[in-house]
Amino acid sequence: MHQITAVLVGAGARGRFVYGAYAKKYPEELKIVAVAEPNKERRQLAAKDYGLSSDQLYESWEQILTKTKIADVAVISTQDRMHYAPTMKALELGYDVLLEKPMSPSPIEVIDMANASRKHNRLLTVSHVLRYTPFWSKIKEVIESGAIGSIVSIQSSENVGYFHMAHSFVRGNWNKSEETSPMILQKSCHDMDILSWLIDEKCTRVSSYGSLLHFRSENAPDGTTLRCTEGCAVERECPYSAIRIYEEAETHEWSRFITNDITPEGIKEALRSGPFGRCVYHCDNNVVDHQVVNMEFESGSTASFTMSGFSHDISRTVQIMGTLGEIRGYMEKNEIVLYPFGKKAIEIPLTVEEGGHGGGDEGLMREFLKQVRKGNNIGGQGLTSAEASLQSHLMAFAAEQSRLEGGNSVVVEELNARYTCSSADELSFLQLHIASTEIII
């Protein structure tokens, strides 16, 4: 096992607390040799975390991804709408790439990135971490054993958690779809990916409903203020109180995401002046807080998915109904029960792993580095390659189109064909423009 070197593009929450943390925990496997991050404070923290000098720190991806390749892999964990350009440049330079999900909120860019992975013969692994968890891996294994026969229908739920909803999608970085991604893509492309993987067929049709129902100014209780710190009359009773979630919490699990200074004074200042101290009813959010999606697959099997920001915990549950049996699972409890028809129920044992997403974060990193060492640099390979992720992204795009159209059924292949043609047309235009420019010069 030889050490893989990496450039880290984006040193925010995922960059520092997942990919960077893996390098610190397993230095014999991964070494970060350069970081690109526009925030000066985060760059300084990266220098301390990974032992970097000033000439290994960059303010932008353009600076770090120059004409010279300086590491084995590029880990890209920028904001959603900043994935495309650095990914395309890294692939062109010969980097194997680990890309934070979603690939992009633009279908054309998603298709382009998958094509670029094949063109440059490089790995492009998308961080659909659920596939790497013991929980979902075991469910996939049971399905492939034939224990429940052919899949007829799946019911899946993502319980976002009321505090996570408020943190990330009301107050936080992903609260406006035009700046990041629609909720079904940003938060639930994991779930679209899992459904696609378990059924192992192309999704043919999608319909969806959802809205921003609760976190609106007209739903604010009497006596609320613009910030929880400004003497709100109902702050003590409000479950979304920023003071309760961040300042009075027993641990810094959530406060570490709102400030790099997690002292009491630092947290208090972040709530007083930063976005996370705002009242949830007086933010600039527009992403949905609940959504349902219905899907049909090639064989006629179906799946239904529910995402809700109104749950007491962060969890995922699933019910998989087959011709010979049924599987029920609760991810956060690592509980899987097989119900073979006409026989006794069987509890499936699981090995519990540490780390985020039920061990999926570390599982993703291990598998990606293993592929890099093997030299399997062929576009399309890998458990969560760009090619595999394209299907789940198309499902999410179709769901959002259906939701915006009032629940109309969207044919996924028609959506794919339209954007594939658009991508080809755009590429042809760019090539023609470049050629014309060269002639003029």
TrEMBL record:
SUPFAM superfamilies: Glyceraldehyde-3-phosphate dehydrogenase-like, C-terminal domain, NAD(P)-binding Rossmann-fold domains. GO terms for molecular function: nucleotide binding. It comes from the Bacteria. Belongs to the Gfo/Idh/MocA family. This is Oxidoreductase.
